[in-house]
Write a structure and sequence with these properties.
It comes from Rhizobium setariae. Residues 23-125 form the AB hydrolase-1 domain. This is Alpha/beta hydrolase. InterPro entries: AB_hydrolase, AB_hydrolase_1, AB_hydrolase_fold. There is one protein chain. With 275 residues, the protein is α/β, with parallel strands linked by helices. The chain has eleven helices and eight strands. Strands 1-2-4-3-5-6-7-8 form an eight-stranded mixed β-sheet, sandwiched between helices. Helix 2 crosses helix 3 (97-108), helix 4 packs antiparallel against helix 8 and helix 6 (157-165) packs across helix 7 (167-175). The protein is globular. It starts with a strand and ends with a helix.
Amino acid sequence: MSEAMTQLPDGTSLNVVDVGTGYPVIFQHGLGGDRHQVADSFPEPIACRRVTVECRGHGLSDKAAVERYSIAGFADDIIAAADSLGLQRFIVGGISMGAAIALRLAITRPERIAALMLVRPAWLTEPAPDNMRPFAEAATLLHTHGREGREIFASSPTGIRLATEAPDNLASLLGFFERDDLHALGDLLGAIALDGPGVTEEQVRALSIPALVVGHTHDLVHPWAYARQLAGIIPGARWAEITPKAVDKARYAADLRAVMDAFLRKFAASEETRT
């Protein structure tokens, strides 16, 4: 395993994790996540080369001005990082925001993408979906109340609803108030909550690569219906419903690793047959 900072042409440094050997897979974290989120979700031992680029403002990567935070910008950064590693064609995937980045890359850079994995997508094609509103609310409280915003969010109508219907979502959102540099984090959360992958349903329907879409219930930020809809409109996509994270976190992780491992192994077998 290697972990190193890669400098982009604009001077921004991004932390890149590169582990394993075999066909390359660039797999991305969610909004506010990092390399650890991916490591906890990805199959082990892996039968591929897994690369994770910590997006601007995440993990060990540089922060950026708020106008530089966008799904399109993060996608461009991944291509730059792939170029620096000499990766011409790869599988792309991700969780939540990572799934939106992956979907954008599959559509806008088809010559680079061999297959697609979308785990718990938080976007379809439109920007600022209602399910991302809790992030926007958290961003406002981070700016206006700092750490004290945690209790305000927890007792708000959104917090009360999440506590009942999606406690794992609530735990993640409350965790933001315990981090450092809360104003910068608020910039990041607010910008991405209002963004989208910048693609159309027609473009999604025109995809012609192997695809896996994974979803589960008990999740308001990552609606089951979004995952199911994407699985239905991506031609030939494999659909997998797994144990909700809020119900059994260990079972969720095991299920996710199993479906991704099966997909990656099937892809590898098809590549061997084709070549």
